[in-house]
């Protein structure tokens, strides 16, 4: 059954059109775009490499920038750390125009970097890289005991979850009471 | 989500481990990932890892429950040591076992090998195993396939938890009373296979009633009488240490030959404790001598192996040939349909999907006579869609229901989605499968408040409800919550604010709503206070005939502490509406953010459209809940 999206939404991608075999495409010089992360370090990336990111690909597909315009207007990703963006750019460059292998050994092994990488990759919508990252996350707990799983993945106990929930409710209640009191004060 | 008390005991027993004070080295805050990514990670775990994960906390169990995992065949045995056997229903070579063993044998529980998990029990192995079985059934959304009955308490437990079972077996002397035996026979109405060990009842005890399962194998079967077998419909009968005489066996053969009894019989084995007289066994029977080359199947299973090589449609058509063919088709292990999707439209379509071949689908269409040159008519359409056209007998919906019931019986796969365009199908689906992932009800199918109430109260929709306009009195209003995760309602003028405020929906999409700016304002305030709509992920409200849309929006955020949002604040650009739909959030120049005390951000924005020539406007209000990740 098809989805029921409507209006401006575009849940289903358009069918790709296939060029006739005999029509040889003319050689087009490769275009480049520029991105920077939180550290403002600008990375030059080819449009081919950026095709891995559905988000960036969607942004650049209708721009038609010249080299100078692209350089003058780097895409800012202030929510991504510089070293993480560097990793993503490197991965996109390494896999530019290539079929993606079933396993990727170039992913970071440090868990704190992997978390930031997963978030960045999810944000930038790089599907293949996200799949690798998710496998890597699952690999962290291979052969581990429940105590180790809980520790590695920072899963709170029920008691901790309940305490956090209670605390949040308490805080919300206090804030609401504060707002009501402030509103009453204003009215006076 | 509520976890039952016994399960809480299991969780605490299993180890609500106090590790919060340990150093946070090499950690990965899994629960801080966006839900879709988190599920993608968990789906890479194997069955035993998912079980261990689901036992960590209630929240972990809720997450594990959302995984799209193939159904498991779950068998629960208790011989000597209770153990749970799990088999992938897709790949029967993939098996896992869970066993509870004595506490003092090792301190390093749980111990796991690649396919086995050994857990420590707290002195009550049986109870621990039952709780674990229930937990696994819930996490993997799979029923128990088979169970070993060892006594009355096991029967009462399984009767309460899951009264329909495919396989039941007992070990020798596990049954010590007629009462227990009778209770077992009561639960066998839908059982395919019964393997009964010797029973410890009094010597004179006899049973004359038929024993229901298709295949029965009974040790020390002196208590099974001739009339019990003759009046039954069993296909495979194996009786050991029977007291049947030569005359009894002669009667069985004669009755079978006459065709009035034992019509489903495929295989009969009787091992008697009395000496048989061949002349009496064959008396008055018209016998011929057979030889080894007459094509007689060497095993009963051979037939099943042939059946398993058939395609989905071929199995369905085979199962329609006769009752016996259906019985055989039901035994196929080809139970890997991931879902049955029903478009009960006009004409109705049954859409089958199979995890062994995810790129393909099988569609069954019902046609009126003479539309096609012959029936059944096959066709392979674009995108590897296999189509089967069947001739309807006048009432297409009736034919459709019958076929769905038949397929459900042959492939024990649940209906994943139903689209209803005919009123009678509502009562049918409530009765036939009251828990469903996705239901879509077409325009004017609902004609009364009672019917609407009946759906919300009797149907458990686990993911998505789509409701087109209802044909009920225009002044009618609905104030009760709709207890489903995602609701999408067209022409929702009847749905009131309390219905939403008191509900727990994650995705809300209302079109043609009559809510006022004050209603929206109340809803936003309640969300920000955190006491209501705690699970809300995305809301889209389409309100018609607004005089001044800008003023409407401003009134909606009155007295709220809103900030302006920007494009680069990390807000997700998509939202998962339901199991097969991801919605791309429309881009607008300006959004307003509300922040809840737990750090969740609610982003609000609106789009406007002029409405006809009346200078009235449509306003689409979007509210997206998210959390800053980086």
From TrEMBL, chain A:
Protein name: Skp1-related protein
Domain of life: Eukaryota
A Pfam family the protein falls into: Skp1_POZ
GO terms of biological process kind: protein ubiquitination; ubiquitin-dependent protein catabolic process
Keyword flag Heme: no
Bias (Low complexity): 8-25, 178-188
Biased composition (Basic and acidic residues): 165-177
All copies of domain SKP1 component POZ, residue ranges: 38-96
The keyword Translocase appears for this protein: no
PANTHER family membership: SKP1 (PTHR11165)
Keywords linked to the UniProt accession: Ubl conjugation pathway
Source organism of this protein record: Caenorhabditis nigoni
Residue intervals of the SKP1 component dimerisation domain: 127-170
Coiled-coil blocks: none
InterPro entries: SKP1 (IPR016897), SKP1-like (IPR001232), SKP1-like_dim_sf (IPR036296), SKP1/BTB/POZ_sf (IPR011333), Skp1_comp_dimer (IPR016072), Skp1_comp_POZ (IPR016073)
Function, as annotated: Probable essential component of SCF (SKP1-CUL1-F-box protein) E3 ubiquitin-protein ligase complexes, which mediate the ubiquitination and subsequent proteasomal degradation of target proteins. Regulates cell proliferation during embryonic and larval development.
Pathway membership: Protein modification; protein ubiquitination
Gene: Cnig_chr_III.g8742
UniProt-annotated stretches for the region Disordered: 1-25, 160-188
Entry similarity comment: Belongs to the SKP1 family.
UniProtKB/TrEMBL annotation, chain B:
F-box domain mapped to chain residues: 27-72
PROSITE patterns documented for this protein: FBOX
Pfam families: F-box, FBA_2
Gene: Cnig_chr_IV.g12277
Protein name: F-box domain-containing protein
Cross-referenced InterPro entries: F-box_dom (IPR001810), F-box_Sdz-33 (IPR012885)
């Amino acid at each position: 059954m098809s989805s029921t999206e409507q209006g401006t939404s575009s849940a289903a991608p358009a069918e790709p059109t296939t060029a006739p075999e005999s029509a040889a495409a003319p050689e087009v010089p490769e275009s480049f775009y520029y991105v920077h992360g939180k550290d403002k370090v600008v990375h030059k990336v080819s449009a081919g490499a950026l095709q891995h990111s559905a988000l960036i690909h969607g942004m650049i597909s209708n721009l038609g920038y010249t080299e100078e315009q692209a350089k003058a207007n780097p895409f800012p990703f202030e929510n991504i750390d510089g070293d993480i963006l560097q990793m993503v750019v490197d991965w996109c460059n390494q896999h530019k125009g290539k079929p993606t292998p079933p396993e990727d050994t170039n992913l970071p092994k440090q868990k704190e970097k992997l978390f930031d990488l997963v978030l960045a990759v999810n944000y930038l919508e790089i599907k293949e890289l996200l799949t690798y990252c998710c496998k890597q996350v699952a690999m962290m707990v291979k052969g581990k005991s429940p105590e180790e799983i809980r520790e590695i993945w920072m899963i709170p106990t029920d008691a901790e979850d309940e305490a956090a929930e209670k605390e949040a409710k308490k805080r919300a209640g206090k804030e609401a009471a504060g707002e009501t009191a402030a509103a009453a004060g204003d009215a006076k | 989500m509520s976890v039952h008390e016994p399960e809480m005991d299991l969780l605490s027993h299993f180890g609500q481990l106090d590790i919060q004070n340990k150093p946070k080295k090499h950690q990965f805050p899994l629960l801080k990932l966006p839900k879709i990514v988190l599920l993608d990670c968990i789906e890479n775990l194997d069955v035993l890892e998912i079980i261990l994960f689901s036992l960590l906390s209630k929240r972990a169990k809720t997450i594990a429950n959302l995984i799209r995992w193939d159904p498991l065949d779950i068998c629960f045995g208790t011989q000597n040591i209770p153990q749970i056997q799990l088999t992938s229903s897709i790949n029967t070579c993939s098996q896992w076992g869970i066993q509870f063993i004595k506490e003092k044998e090792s301190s390093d529980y749980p111990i796991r090998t690649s396919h086995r998990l050994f857990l420590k029990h707290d002195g009550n192995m049986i109870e621990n195993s039952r709780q674990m079985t229930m937990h696994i059934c819930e996490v993997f959304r799979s029923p128990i396939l088979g169970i070993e009955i060892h006594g009355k308490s096991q029967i009462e437990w399984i009767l309460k938890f899951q009264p329909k079972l495919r396989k039941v077996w007992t070990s020798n002397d596990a049954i010590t009373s007629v009462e227990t035996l009778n209770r077992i026979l009561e639960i066998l109405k839908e059982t395919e296979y019964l393997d009964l060990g010797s029973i410890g009842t009094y010597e004179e005890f006899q049973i004359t009633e038929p024993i229901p399962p298709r295949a029965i194998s009974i040790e020390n079967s002196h208590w099974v009488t001739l009339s019990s077998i003759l009046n039954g419909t069993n296909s495979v009968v194996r009786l050991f240490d029977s007291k049947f005489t030569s005359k009894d066996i002669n009667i069985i053969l004669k009755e079978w030959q006459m065709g009035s009894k034992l019509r489903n019989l495929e295989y009969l084995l009787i091992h008697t404790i009395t000496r048989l007289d061949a002349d009496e066994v064959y008396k008055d029977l018209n016998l011929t001598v057979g030889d080894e080359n007459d094509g007689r199947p060497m095993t009963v299973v051979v037939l099943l192996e042939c059946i398993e090589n058939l395609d989905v449609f071929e199995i369905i058509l085979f199962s329609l040939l006769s009752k016996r063919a259906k019985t055989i088709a039901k035994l196929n292990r080809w139970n890997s349909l991931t879902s049955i999707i029903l478009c009960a439209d006009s004409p109705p379509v049954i859409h089958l999907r199979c995890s062994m071949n995810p790129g393909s689908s099988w569609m069954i269409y019902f046609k009126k006579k003479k539309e096609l040159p012959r029936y059944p008519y096959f066709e392979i359409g674009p995108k590897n869609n296999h189509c089967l056209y069947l001739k309807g007998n006048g009432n297409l919906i009736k034919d459709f229901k019958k076929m769905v019931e038949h397929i459900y019986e042959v492939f024990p796969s649940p209906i994943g989605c139903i689209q209803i365009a005919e009123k009678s199908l509502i009562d049918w689906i409530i009765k036939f499968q009251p828990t469903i992932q996705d239901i879509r009800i077409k325009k004017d199918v609902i004609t009364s408040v009672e019917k609407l109430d009946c759906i919300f109260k009797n149907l458990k929709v686990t993911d998505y409800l789509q409701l087109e306009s209802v044909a009920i009195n225009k002044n009618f209003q609905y104030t009760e919550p709709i207890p489903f995760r995602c609701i999408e309602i067209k022409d929702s003028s009847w749905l009131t604010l309390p219905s939403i405020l008191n509900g727990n929906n994650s995705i809300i999409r209302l079109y043609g709503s009559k809510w006022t700016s004050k209603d929206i304002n109340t809803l936003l305030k309640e969300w920000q206070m955190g006491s209501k709509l705690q699970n809300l992920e995305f809301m889209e409200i389409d309100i018609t005939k607004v005089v001044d849309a800008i003023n409407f929006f401003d009134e909606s955020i009155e007295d709220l502490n809103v900030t302006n949002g920007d494009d680069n604040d990390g807000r997700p650009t998509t939202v998962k509406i339901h199991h097969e739909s991801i919605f791309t959030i429309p881009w607008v120049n300006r959004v307003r953010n509300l922040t809840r005390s737990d750090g969740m951000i609610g982003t609000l924005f609106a789009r406007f459209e002029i409405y006809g020539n009346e200078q009235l406007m449509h306003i689409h209000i979007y509210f997206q809940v998210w959390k800053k990740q980086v």
